[in-house]
Amino acid sequence: MPANKFDIMSCYGIQICFSFAERIVIMGIRSVLSKPLAQMVVAQQKKWSAKPGDYQQRIFKNLIAKGQKTVFGSDHHLQDVTNYAEFKEAVPIKDYEGLKGYVERILKGESDVLWPGKPAYFAKTSGTTSGTKYIPLTKDSIPNHINSARDALLSYVNESGNGNFLDGKLIFLSGSPEMDKKAGIYTGRLSGIVNHHVPGYLRTNQMPSYATNCIEDWEEKLEKIIDETIDKDMTLISGIPPWVQMYFDRIVERTGKPIKDVFPNFSMFVYGGVNFEPYRKKLFETIGKEIPSIETYPASEGFIAYQDSQVEEGLLLLSDSGIFFEFVPADEYFNENPTRLTVDEVKTGINYAVIINSNAGLWGYSIGDTVKFVSTYPHRLVVSGRIKHFISAFGEHVIGEEVEKAMRETMQEFPETELVEFTVAPNVTPEEGLPLHEWYVEFRQEPNDLASFQNKLDLHLQKLNTYYFDLVSGNILSELKLIPLQQDAFRNYMKSIGKLGGQNKVPRLSNDRKLAEGLIPFKK
Hints:
single chain; 20 strands; 22% strand; disordered N terminus; 11-stranded mixed β-sheet
């Protein structure tokens, strides 16, 4: 396996290195050492977040200079590009399919295709239309993934003055770190690649063991993780909320105790990948208390943003981390020539599709997410959904942000309700009545009045989406139908398609019935 090339606690020319003996001593004072480093990181953060356009322009110029030396650059005449307007003319927006031909040339052994040289890694992900996707990571782009995760933690340390969570055991519930090779390039899951860049002095408190992390079967792996962690001083736990909840549930089953009693020093939860709100109540109930949390926004294509403050809304856009961002108004995304905006041109309250150009060799690349800025200078955002995850069977264009908010507001009116997971799909040709939206919901505890809950849920969605309101009030669509599922329905469904655990997520909604049909056998 590759050596640890990048030091997570390295910053601006200062590198903290320890011999083995020093690492043993340092076990209790990581939190102390983190504070001056956190001050340095946040000082830099304030500079680039105050003038993101200036830093983005520097990145843009560097990308063009290096991109000119590639096959992609030659094909798109990057040697003639001198400004952003010319770049938009030269480089169209594309998804993975648009870059796939270039990736295949790298897989055949070519160099200088998308970025000078060859990628250091391929992050392997599954795509709905492209099959397996191979996302390049280069020596230049890896610090974006590593340093951003570090800086999210250090931002919290600086703001709170508390770094005690660094002194105990930490765990990231992730995929296997095992890798194979494609054209001589290490290939594996992003979480596994990142695992190889955790420096030695943090490995002394990292859980689980490498052997356990390599187990592919999620349920077997989960039991082994519990075996290894249940009697340890766990202080930081990280992962996608539904899989962390499963980890906690199994521990409670074994011990009969809330998590706060099993891990009394557990004081930091780091998450990303899905909206935390539907899981927050149950997760903290299982822990037995609320603890600080940090939200991150990583993707295989790049680390986009992280929560830099416990008091400000949203995640800070990383405008000085090797990625030149573009934003397309979501309602224009499928137009032939959609508007493309830089960070200085975006406005708050508008849904944008995220487009990246990066030192990984991704050009005009749509990562598939939509975001909404809640502030500018500094630019903080919330992830509002997936550009292709929507329901618009009749032009309503209901998005993930809306269904999640409707569910959250309804649950506030039925506080006895506990939610496990849900997804929404259209039914254009029901056996009787008008077309409608079907909500497949797994409750841990159902509302006392399911019919009233369903009615309130529909009313909240109508308030959030005027097109949906018009269709329901105009008798084009029927009110939504809530379909309760059996316990462990989503878990068993994900297992049946080989996507249980790790970084796999259930789409909140879709414009077809593939997921809905898969869940029908799990109806109550």
